[in-house]
């Protein structure tokens, strides 16, 4: 089997480096000038590290297509995505509760970790703690949890009733 090797001259390489990224000429015109195939031009440009910038309209079409694909994927896998996010939030909340000791700071209750709640101490709270855990980064959630104490549901109701 005989393999043909296309040799590029320095003049052809210089022309490709100059015209390929400029968008003044389309690929067909460059192909005719160099007497090479469009595929050969593309491959050589990749090998020598020369790229053509995308046109704005191509980027807009790409963004629209990407959004459609994401929407289609979400619709198809909506239940799985919801289950994974719910499980991730549950695990993150349990880690934060364990970080605060895993028991009520008022009465010491520790039978059911789901019955324990975060109670903000002070007025410098960023927002509702469950929303922060759901929608924010781990660091932001940790920062907010450090402003809280862990109390059981009964003690939490008492604290709010007493105005604490």
Keywords:
single chain; 164 residues; mainly alpha; 2 domains; two-stranded antiparallel sheet; 60% helix
| Widest β-sheet, arrangement of strands | 1-2
Largest sheet entry: 2 strands, antiparallel
Helix content: 55-70%
Order of helices and strands: HHHHEHHEH
- Specify the number of helices: 7
Question: Average pLDDT value?
Answer: 85
Q: What does this 3D model show about the protein?
A:
With about 160 residues, the protein is mostly helical. The chain has 2 domains: about 10-50; about 55-160, no CATH class. The chain has helices at about 10-20, 25-35, 40-50, 55-100, 130-135, 140-145, 155-160, and strands at about 115-120, 150. It has a two-stranded antiparallel sheet.
Short structural summary:
By secondary structure, this protein is mainly α. 60% of the residues lie in helices and 6% in strands.
Annotate the secondary structure layout.
Blueprint: H1 10-19, H2 27-34, H3 38-48, H4 56-99, E1 116-120, H5 129-135, H6 138-145, E2 148-152, H7 153-162
Antiparallel strand pairs: 1-2
């Amino acid at each position: 089997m005989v393999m043909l090797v296309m040799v590029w001259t320095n003049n052809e390489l210089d022309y490709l480096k100059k015209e390929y990224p400029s968008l003044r000429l389309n690929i067909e015109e460059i192909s005719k000038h160099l007497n090479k195939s469009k595929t050969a031009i593309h491959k050589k440009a990749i090998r020598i590290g020369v790229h053509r910038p995308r046109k704005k309209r191509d980027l807009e079409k790409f963004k629209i297509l990407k959004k459609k694909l994401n929407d289609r994927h979400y619709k198809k896998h909506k239940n799985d995505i919801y289950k994974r996010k719910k499980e991730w939030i549950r695990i993150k909340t349990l880690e934060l509760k364990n970080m605060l000791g895993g028991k009520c700071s008022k009465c010491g209750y520790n039978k059911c970790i789901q019955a324990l709640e975060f109670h903000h101490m002070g007025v410098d709270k960023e927002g509702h703690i469950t929303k922060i855990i759901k929608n924010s980064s781990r660091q932001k959630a940790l920062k907010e949890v450090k402003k809280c104490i862990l109390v059981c549901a009964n003690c939490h109701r008492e604290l709010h009733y007493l105005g604490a």
